[in-house]
Write a structure and sequence with these properties.
The complex is a heterodimer.
Chain A: H1 3-23, H2 41-51, H3 54-73, H4 78-100, H5 105-127, H6 137-159
Helix pairs in contact in A: 1-2, 1-3, 2-3, 2-4, 2-6, 3-4, 4-5, 5-6
Chain B: H1 2-23, E1 31-36, E2 39-44, E3 50-55, E4 60-66, E5 69-74, H2 81-84, E6 95-97, E7 102-107, H3 113-116
Antiparallel strand pairs in B: 1-2, 1-7, 3-4, 4-5, 6-7
The chains are: A mainly alpha, B alpha+beta.
Chain lengths: 165, 117
């Protein structure tokens, strides 16, 4: 990794951490499903994935989870493992979806959002040892469509700017 | 590409419908079950207004029953999501308090008495 790359990754991580923290102050359908959010930080991940490469996107995604954990929820707390599982599954699926080239950026964003939810449900069932968490799944899947489209569209618009970070 | 995106959306919608049909088959609400991990730690009668305290992973969780509805009144957690969820009155949206490993849901009460006679 050269110096330019390190700087670039740092800026992207800083952006996604700030967006993540800002987003947590926006209440969004919290009465229907607690913890449901738009996933603005995913804009940065998708941007990185399309502008640079898979490896950079993995770095940004995982270090973001680590930093947000450190700053907000506490490292290695339950919430931390939820974000981690969601982030890992979502970034891997998005990389695969981008490589096979059958989905547009919006489709990739939707599928990333779907697998983010799925990862959290799976880790929830494992960590909390409670099958009832699966009741969240239909709601999360349903909301991952509009949020996925929204994030996909924003990412696409940002990618249209010619300037690099 | 856009066509495939639409196919993906339709696929997710079908999945949601199947999941809902499977998960929300029984909509019964004559008993409230409180889980810690996978163990039932409290059975509550929704017809009696009262507050109950159970021990969660991070501290006490105060559960309030009022007008056949239930909510988490107080709890210790980073975002207080389960107390923000407020009252629930059916089995479609259980209260899931992740940091405290507590789940509160409506369920069907098993009537043992009726079996005897």
């Amino acid at each position: 990794m050269d110096l330019k790359m390190i700087t670039r990754v740092s800026i992207l991580i800083a952006l996604s951490v700030v967006i993540n923290i800002l987003e947590s102050y926006i209440p969004f359908f919290n009465n229907i499903i607690p913890g449901l959010k738009l996933g603005f930080a995913n804009i940065i991940i998708i941007y990185t994935l399309y502008k640079y490469d898979s490896k950079t996107a993995i770095y940004v995604s995982l270090i973001r989870v680590l930093l947000v954990g450190l700053l907000r929820t506490g490292l290695f707390s339950i919430t931390f493992f939820f974000s981690l599982a969601g982030a890992i599954l979502s970034i891997l699926v998005m990389i695969i979806a981008k490589k096979i080239k059958i989905l547009s950026i919006i489709g990739v964003s939707i599928i990333g959002s779907v697998f983010h939810s799925l990862g959290q449900i799976i880790i929830g069932i494992i960590l909390l040892n409670n099958k009832n968490i699966i009741y969240y799944l239909p709601y999360l899947l349903l909301f991952s469509i509009p949020t996925g489209i929204f994030i996909g569209v924003i990412s696409k618009k940002i990618l249209e700017y010619p300037k690099n970070i | 590409m856009i066509k495939n995106d639409i196919k993906l959306i339709v696929l997710i919608l079908i999945l949601v419908i199947i999941l809902m049909l499977v998960l929300f088959k029984d909509n019964s609400n004559n008993e409230i079950l409180v889980y810690y991990e996978d163990k039932i730690i409290k059975r509550i009668n929704p017809n009696i207004d009262n507050t109950y305290t159970v021990e969660g992973y991070l501290g006490d969780v105060v559960i309030e029953v009022k007008d056949k509805k239930v909510r988490v009144k107080e709890e210790t957690s980073p975002y207080h999501l389960c107390s923000k969820q407020s009252f629930i009155s059916n089995s479609y949206t259980p209260i899931i308090c992740l940091p405290n490993k507590i789940v509160i849901k409506f369920s069907q009460k098993e009537d043992i008495d009726e079996v005897v006679y």
